[in-house]
Write a structure and sequence with these properties.
The protein folds into three domains: 38 residues, Ubiquitin-associated (UBA) domain (Helicase, Ruva Protein, domain 3, Orthogonal Bundle), CATH 1.10.8.10; 155 residues, Tetrahydropterin Synthase, Chain A (2-Layer Sandwich); 41 residues, GTP Cyclohydrolase I, Chain A, domain 1 (Orthogonal Bundle), CATH 1.10.286. Helix content is 46%, strand content 17%. It has twelve helices and six strands. It is flat and about 60 Å long.
């Protein structure tokens, strides 16, 4: 097997991601042969990494382009990147964002990742024209296109570098216009934008089995020298898994918007009671410039 050289940049990236010390990061990367994800797991098993640390720190400039239909049955978020914040504020870059949104709308279901990155595709060609004009490298890294009963959005007003999009089900025309529903949309989207760690799944059931198996293995490794009986270890592991759900599952998180900190699922239940409805969250996306998707 070929041994991967461990560079200072790799060590810094891992340290930024986990909060562990430089030597611990280097040792973990060496053991993992340069695989960052595996190195994170190694550090967590040693109790040296925080599970709450968010991977993929910002590494580039740009803005989140956004558009939502007048009746909120469709919405778009697109991350458009460039090298400097100065260029991101120019009229040419703003026009690029608008044109990319048009292209995604025209493509419809064809707006896949492969389509987005196709060197001969419409997005790459449109971006190339602005690169040639402004002399700065640019790209479109990801797109979130939702259609449904109601698509809500929140774009952080400071900088425009963070956007959230949520697909709500069970929303009738009568419910859509109610103040209670509008307040719910605002609260949910703002929570997703502000929550730390950011939610990754809507429900517990949505968490993949392999993710849960990996967490269980990490918790067991952390306690392997405790000497506790197997049945006690099982209970401790499941207890830790409950805390994991509260970190990554949207409905299990405590609201960061309300001082009383109810769970998000209770906020939705309260709104449904007032509305006499069955509003639910089908899916969501949180998009921050330069941040890798979770």
């Amino acid at each position: 097997m070929t041994t991967t050289a461990i560079t200072a940049d790799m060590v810094k990236k891992l340290r930024d991601q986990t909060g562990a010390g430089m030597m611990e990061c280097k040792n973990a990367l060496t053991q993992a042969n340069g695989d960052v994800d595996e190195a994170v797991t190694i550090l967590r098993k040693r109790g040296l990494a925080s599970a709450a640390k968010k991977a993929g720190r910002a590494t580039s400039e740009g803005l989140i382009a956004h558009r939502v239909a007048a009746d909120h049955t469709a919405g778009l978020l697109v991350e458009v990147n460039c090298e400097s914040d100065f260029v991101a504020r120019t009229p040419d870059f703003q026009q690029l964002m608008n044109d990319v949104l048009d292209l995604v709308e025209q493509a419809g279901d064809g707006a896949t990742d492969a389509w987005l990155q196709d060197p001969d595709g419409p997005v790459k060609k449109r971006v190339s024209a602005t690169i040639a004009k402004l002399g700065e490298n640019m790209g479109v890294s990801r797109v979130a296109r939702y259609t449904g009963d109601y698509v809500g959005q929140y774009i952080h007003t400071v900088g425009g570098k963070l956007g959230v999009q949520v697909d709500f089900s069970g929303v009738t025309p009568a419910v859509r216009d109610r103040d209670e529903f509008k307040g719910l949309v605002r609260e949910i989207t703002m929570h997703i934008a502000a929550a730390s760690p950011s939610p990754q799944y809507v429900t517990r059931e949505a968490v993949p089995a392999d993710v849960l198996d990996k967490e269980r293995a990490i918790y067991r490794a952390q306690m392997e020298s405790s000497g506790k009986p197997a049945n006690i270890l099982d209970k401790i592991v499941e207890g830790k898994l409950g805390s994991f759900y509260q970190q990554v599952v949207l409905l299990e998180q405590e609201s960061v918007i309300r001082e009383t900190k109810p769970k998000v699922k209770d906020v939705i239940a309260e709104a449904n009671k007032a509305l006499g409805a069955q509003v639910a969250i089908k899916r969501f996306v949180r998009m921050k410039v330069g941040e890798a998707p979770a």
